Amino acid sequence: MAGIRPARPSASFRSFFSYKVFASALFTLLFLAALSAFLSSPSPPSRYSPTSALRGRFLASDPLRARVDLIYRQAADHSVLVTAYAAYARRLKLDSSRQLRVFEGLTDSLSDLSLRLEGTVFDDEDALRAIEKEAKDRVKFARQLVAESKEAFDTQIKIQKLRDTIFAVREQLHRAKKLGALAGSIAAGSTPKSLHCLAMRLMEERIAHPETYRHAAAAALADPELYHYAIFSDNVIAVSVVVNSAIKNAREPWKHVFHVLTDPMYLAAMQVWFVRRPPTGGAKVEVRSVAEFRFLNASYSPVVRMLEGGRRDLSVLHYLRFYLPQMFPKLRRIVLLEDDVVVQKDLAGLWSVDLDGMVNGAVETCFGGFKRYNRYLNFSNPLVQNRFSSRACAWAYGVNVFDLDAWRREKCTEQFHEYQILNEDGTLWDQASVLPAGLATFYTTTKPLDKTWHVLGLGYNPSISLDEIQNAAVVHFDGNMKPWLDVALNQYKHLWTKYVDSEMDFLQLCNFGL
């Protein structure tokens, strides 16, 4: 049978094989479609374990599942809300209150309910209804508690925010006051252009016409029967206001003598002013320089010795008031006036005030616990503690009546020298101010004057009553807001400007804004 070709398969066999392949392919496609449908079906929430999902597979399409989700979300949301209010309570420092304990208990209860919902599969309606009722009761209680507490918590939060705002504003005010005090001290210590211009023009006049002012400095007037005033200043216009106001309010102006003591640099300017604008009513003005007092040398005065040693925070002109008996050896009584005062009444009555043998007559400034000696002296120093009382009442410079005979008897200048030597390092008091030295020197020799003689505060206090000002014999612009500066208090400035000699031609040339 070699060479015989094999027979071809029959048609029936080929048909059977094609049918088998087709059936296999169809079965494979159906299997893949079923598997894809199974895998793409929604899986249960992550809070159900696979085992519990299989045990509760009949709930996959049941409304119980939606109810469980709703209960869980409500419990979780209200737990977060109550936790937030508990945090607010802690922030507002309500840890010991009953309300905080209720918040914390309710938070724990809602958290426990959420955990039970996560770990439990509900197979019937009754079990779900029981936990649903429990959840609704707790959510209802949470809503009531939040509603009752919302207003109180909102108010507490607003109060806390308001306190924070007040604290911030107070800090800003404190900084503004410090900056204002610094600016005021700079303004008070500087010389305005107008004052500098006035001094320069008066000096120019003195140089241009020496013969006119050659005998301007008259011999010292030392009649003890007259009313003598001492004014220490290098401010020409301020001194002129003090003199003019005292003369215009004096009943007997011819009895008043004003001793103006100034720095050598301003001596010529002072002389020219009072020669060109002499006092009226027969009053007398004597202008002298600090350099004329030969006893003020380093061997006698500790102040001069400190200045020659390089101290720049001291001024001989300010400390000259401690040498009044040496400067006026023939006088028995003298009144010291500061250059920032305005006289409103006759001061002749100061010469009839009984000082009871005391050296200094001054208006006291203490009230309550304020402006006592402990404000001006360093009572942490044993020397100060042993010699002075911290509760002693302080007094003010500005209007001071000095009995020069009592001064000489009590040797007050020698006491001043002793204290200056002890305070050379500044440990007893601040040497930049002359008042502490006066408080120490005249500690037991000061007689209080009636307060109407001297009203202070017009240079810093805007709240002084009008009656107090009107009844005052002298008003004092102590402080940084001097009346000749732009920072002066407007409600008081007219008290000073009405005594300015506006007819003086040099004032107009120097642009004084009066």
Automatic annotation (TrEMBL):
InterPro entries linked to this entry: GAUT, Glyco_trans_8
GO molecular function: polygalacturonate 4-alpha-galacturonosyltransferase activity
Alphabetical list of CDD domains matching this protein: GT8_like_1 (cd06429)
Protein's GO biological process: cell wall organization; pectin biosynthetic process
EC number: 2.4.1.-
Keywords: Cell wall biogenesis/degradation, Glycosyltransferase, Golgi apparatus, Transferase
Glycosyltransferase recorded as keyword: yes
Pathway(s) where this gene product acts: Glycan metabolism; pectin biosynthesis
Domain of life: Eukaryota
Location of this chain's protein in the cell: Golgi apparatus membrane
Matches recorded under PANTHER family: GALACTURONOSYLTRANSFERASE 4-RELATED (PTHR32116), GALACTURONOSYLTRANSFERASE 9-RELATED (PTHR32116:SF61)
Similarity-based family: Belongs to the glycosyltransferase 8 family.
Protein name: Hexosyltransferase
Organism: Zingiber officinale (Ginger)
